[in-house]
Specification:
The protein has helices spanning 2-15, 32-47, 80-89, 106-114, 145-156, 164-177, 188-199, 204-212, 217-230, 246-251, 298-305, 323-340, and strands spanning 21-25, 51-56, 74-75, 92-96, 119-124, 135-138, 232-234, 239-244, 274-280, 285-291, 309-310, 314-319. It is α/β, with parallel strands linked by helices and 341 residues long. It has two domains: 2-212, inorganic pyrophosphatase (n-terminal core); 217-340, Diaminopimelate Epimerase, Chain A, domain 1 (Roll). Strand 4, helix 4 (106-114) and strand 5 form a beta-alpha-beta unit. It binds manganese (II) ion.
């Protein structure tokens, strides 16, 4: 706690009086937490008189379109010049919900590395952060980056600087990273933070409806198809996997973000302790992994078998072989991991 205070004071000296050129950056395939934390942090820094550019490597999923300020993001994939220029001129680069710069594409990495004078600051809750940041707010025990941002805002600027939209955006990050407040890291401090957000105007029901009841008919049908036809249980019904090919996705007019949350459904089956989903894209297979409780650490699993990582109960990775080969690799890896580790 003391260390947090000390580092926050250091940060306050940097950004508290304004006038700085700042870039706020988050990860590829941004989720609710990446976006909620970046938007609020960017808005608060701007409010303090800084010149802030929020950058995402690629576009956010359409179901988050309602978030206030989301159209202000510079999407590097669509506006690379603007993104590169902002990074080039930045005096401070904040990386949010982003444990390694390698989670960006090469052009953005190169732009950050080329700017050797900018201070690099991490605000994150992933495990094993790298050490090339000048200042690190890395709290793997926190449920979300949005919660870390809330704590920083309170410490540096005071909770009053948060408006209703900030409160909604931070709550979106907290809600989506905790499975609507049902996973781990649900501490008294978190609920005190939510109380604080309620006092700033947050309407939980509104955010719930906006995030969870805003899907297309195609997405709902894809979910039905996925669970009915594609879910496979192995290892004595303790492990589930789902593999969706590009062709299947096209049949349901797949949009970025449509498969968000699918991986959680198999965990609602008694006895299932690990769930995986494989989504085929043009370049590679996207791997998402989930588990419940302490028994299976999918962060370790993702690192060991799928060039990835994340958290104990939620991790991801990539596979560069075919979908069928990926599934075979998963079946073998799950057996090895569960029976010999
Ligand atoms: Mn997160």
């Amino acid at each position: 706690m003391e260390q947090f205070r000390q580092k926050a004071a250091e940060l306050k000296a940097l950004v508290g009086s304004g006038g700085k050129k700042i870039v706020v950056l988050s990860h590829t395939n941004p989720d609710g937490d990446a976006i909620g934390s970046s938007l609020t942090w960017g808005h608060v820094l701007q409010g303090a008189g800084n010149d802030v550019t929020c950058i995402l490597p690629n576009r956010y999923p359409a179901f988050l379109n309602w978030m206030e300020g989301i159209d202000r993001f510079v999407i590097a994939k669509e506006n690379l010049d603007v993104a590169q220029k902002a990074i080039e001129q930045a005096e401070i680069v904040f990386c949010l919900d982003l444990n390694t710069i390698e989670r960006l594409d090469e052009t953005l990495c190169a732009a950050i590395e080329a700017n050797t004078t900018a201070k690099r600051i991490l605000i994150d809750h992933h495990l094993n952060p790298p050490t090339y940041y000048d200042l690190m707010f890395s709290y793997p025990e926190d449920c979300s980056t949005s919660f870390v941002v809330y704590r920083l805002v309170c410490e540096i600027f005071g909770v009053e600087v948060l408006d209703k939209s900030d409160a909604e955006n931070l709550y979106t990050g907290i809600m989506t990273d905790t499975g609507n407040l049902s996973f781990s890291s649900l501490t008294p401090e978190l609920f005190r933070a939510i109380a604080g957000l309620l006092e700033r105007g947050l309407e939980i029901q509104k955010v719930n409806v906006a995030v969870y009841n805003a899907f297309t008919a195609d997405r709902v049908r894809l979910l039905g198809y996925t669970l009915n036809k594609k879910m496979t249980l192995i290892e004595n019904n303790t492990v589930s996997y789902i593999a969706l090919s590009e062709r299947e996705l096209r049949r349901f007019n797949f949009q970025l973000g449509d498969s968000e949350g699918f991986v959680n459904y198999p965990l609602t089956i008694t006895g299932v302790k690990m769930s995986a989903i494989f989504i085929e894209t043009r370049k590679f297979i996207r791997v998402s992994l989930r588990s419940r409780g302490d028994e299976v650490d999918v962060n370790v699993f993702a690192r060991k078998y799928f060039n990835g990582g994340g958290h104990k109960n939620a991790a991801g990775g990539r596979s560069y072989v075919s979908l069928a080969e990926t599934v075979d690799h998963f079946i073998r890896s799950a057996s090895e991991f569960l029976n010999h580790c």
